[in-house]
Specification:
Blueprint: E1 2-5, H1 12-27, E2 32-35, H2 46-57, E3 62-66, H3 67-74, H4 97-100, E4 110-115, E5 119-123, E6 128-132, H5 146-163, H6 171-196, H7 220-225
Parallel strand pairs: 1-2, 2-3, 3-4
Antiparallel strand pairs: 4-5, 5-6
C-alpha cells in the first residue's frame, strides 16, 4: 500500500515526483491510500487547493478525510462551532451516500470520514455506516489533540487494510478495522497527555515541596506552548 497526503502537492517538483511514485506503485499492483490532511492556509486559494487535490483524488483506492475536509470538498456550509462548549449534534452527523457521491470515482473502494476519536464514518459502493468511539478522552484537563489521534487512526487503518487487502470493502471487517483505529487514536492522545503532564490544581497551596526527580505540574499556558518531548 502506498501512502501520501496533500503536502507534496504544495511544491511543483514534489508534486511531479509524488505523481510519478503513485503511478509507478499502481503499475506494481499497490493500493493507493490518500490522507487528505488539507493545510488550507498554505494554498493561494480554496479553488487552487481543490484543483490540485483533484489531480490525485481519482488515483486513490482508499481516502481518509476529516468531517471538516469532507464539508469543504462537497461545498457544505459547516454549522459546527469551534472553541466553545456547544456539543451540537451536527458534529456527529452522518452524511448519506448521495452527499458524498460527487466525490466518488471508479478507482475508489473505501472512503473514511473521521472526527477525532469520537466517530468514524465509512463508505463503499455497497455499504456505508459509522462506528462510535470516545469523545475527547479526558486524559488531562488540557488534553484534546485531534491531530495526534489522527496520525494514530490513519496508521491503524493502513495496518488493518494491508494485512487483509481482500477484505478492503467487507462491511464487518471495515467496522472491526475502525474500532482498532479508534483505540490507537486514543492511545496516541494518552501518550501526548503523559508527555506534557497535568496542570496544577487551583486550590493547591503556593508553597509546594519540590519533587526529588524534578517532576512538576505545568500551567495551561505552558501546556499549550510547550514543544514535543524528544
Amino acid at each position: 500500500m502506498f501512502y501520501f497526503n496533500t503536502h507534496p502537492l504544495l511544491d511543483q517538483n514534489m508534486r511531479s515526483v509524488a505523481l510519478q511514485a503513485i503511478k509507478a506503485s499502481k503499475k506494481l499492483g499497490a493500493k493507493i491510500f490518500y490522507d487528505v490532511n488539507l493545510p488550507l492556509p498554505l494554498w493561494q486559494s480554496s479553488d487552487e487547493a481543490k484543483l490540485f487535490i483533484q489531480q490525485v483524488w481519482n488515483l486513490a483506492n482508499v481516502i481518509e478525510v476529516t468531517k471538516q475536509e469532507l464539508e469543504f470538498l462537497c461545498g457544505i456550509k459547516a454549522t459546527e462551532e469551534f472553541d466553545t462548549k456547544n456539543n451540537s449534534s451536527s458534529k456527529f452527523v452522518h452524511y448519506g451516500p448521495e452527499v458524498v457521491s460527487p466525490l466518488w470515482h471508479e478507482n475508489l473502494e473505501v472512503l473514511f470520514v473521521t472526527n477525532g476519536t469520537s466517530k468514524i464514518h465509512y463508505y463503499t459502493k455497497e455499504h456505508n455506516g459509522t462506528v462510535h468511539g470516545m469523545e475527547d478522552p479526558p486524559i488531562t484537563p488540557f488534553t484534546c489533540d485531534m491531530s495526534a489521534s489522527g496520525d494514530g487512526i490513519v496508521a491503524a487503518l493502513m495496518r488493518m487494510l494491508t494485512v487483509q487487502l481482500h477484505l478492503i470493502t467487507d462491511k464487518e471487517y471495515l467496522e472491526r478495522t475502525i474500532k482498532y483505529a479508534i483505540d490507537c487514536g486514543v492511545i496516541d492522545q494518552w501518550l501526548l497527555g503523559r508527555e506534557r503532564g497535568f496542570p496544577p490544581k487551583e486550590d493547591m497551596e503556593e508553597e509546594v515541596e519540590p519533587d526529588l526527580n524534578g517532576i512538576r505540574s505545568i500551567t495551561e499556558k505552558e501546556y499549550r506552548t510547550v514543544g514535543p518531548v524528544i
